[in-house]
Amino acid sequence: MEISPATFPVPPADDRKLYELRATRYAFPTLAVAQEMNLFEHLAQGPKTIEDITEELQLTSRAAEAMAIVVTALGFLARHNDGRYGLADLARTYLLPTSPFYDHELMQKDDPSVEQLRRVFRSGDQPIQPIAVKMRDLTDEQVDNFIHRMHTITLPAASGLANQPVFGSMDKLLDVGGGSGSLCLAIASRYPQTQCTIMDFERVCRIAQGNIVKHKLVDRITTVAADMFLDLWPSSYDGVLFGNIFHDWDWKSCQYLARQAFKTLNPGGSICLHEMLLNEFKDGPLVVACYSVAMLLHERGKQYTATELQALLDEVGFVNFQTTPTFGYYSLVTAVKP
Question: Which of residues 70, 100, 121 is at a domain's end?
């Protein structure tokens, strides 16, 4: 099989609708749990900041933000220019007990999805069904199922990512937590001069190696078995890529990853974060906000705004920040090591 950009073409239709179907299953249960927790009665007293909501509902700031943005994206709250969230007419009409149109029980309290998210929002910062953050503890079957599922989900966006010109200037690219290799497969086929290395757990690297062989890219992509938090990273790369990695982790962990990337990069090299971004006003998009709820369920992170990621990278010493849409809901955030 000849390897060329045509091997991993950009799909003729984007996958937003599939992401909407996957993610928005969290939307209605989140609204129902917000009602149970009396979010709307609290906001009837006046607009609140995320810090206020955190304190009054006794949530973590991560949970409070996820809830507020989902409910805002649904149209029940409005975010003000000062960063506070207040009631929209929709909530005043249907979700306040003082309204004649009050809907007192959006979903049955014993609905499994409501019960699950009730636990999620009250679980502190510990995921109740951990996946990526507890990869070491998963069975081989669980790892295999998760990595193959992520391969299918991320492959459509891989070609959109590979079309970004930043990768054309790289001789060596390190894909941290590269999973199945979906992103590197597209990048290596698009830029034959770029040597890619996928760094992940040994069990994951075996899956990636199978995909590399399948697509006849063994001369362009290698794997390194390592724990990105515990093991030494390979060095002297022109680019370090994180695809759907930062959203799994808390701020402190992301700072560590950014610092390690900074050490790994040659001067002039780029860090590349491929993520679905919240908008800067933090009132959507609904799909991305729902993924923050999924992160409460499964991981330790959240969906970030481009400005939040820029601030994180700036703390580490990166410069020349850029954000570029790639495919569907995804964007690429890049910055350069001076």
Answer: 121
Number of domains in the chain: 2
Domain at 271, CATH number:
3.40.50.150
Distance of alpha carbon 161 from alpha carbon 330, whole angstroms? 9
Q: For 274-285, how does the pLDDT look when each residue is reduced to its tens digit (9 = 90+)? A: 999 999 999 999
Residues 114, 138 within the same domain: no
Q: Edge-to-edge, what's the strand order for the sheet holding 319-327?
A: 221-225, 195-200, 172-176, 237-243, 265-276, 330-336, 319-327
pTM, rounded to two decimals: 0.95
Residues 321 and 337: beta-carbon distance below 8 Å: no
Does pLDDT of 2 surpass 50? no
Answer for the pair 215, 3: CB distance below 8 angstroms, yes or no.
yes
CB 323 within 8 A of CB 331: yes
Give the N- to C-terminal CA distance of the chain in Å, as an integer.
40
Q: For residue 276, what are the domain limits?
A: 132-336
- Are 111 and 159 in a shared domain? no
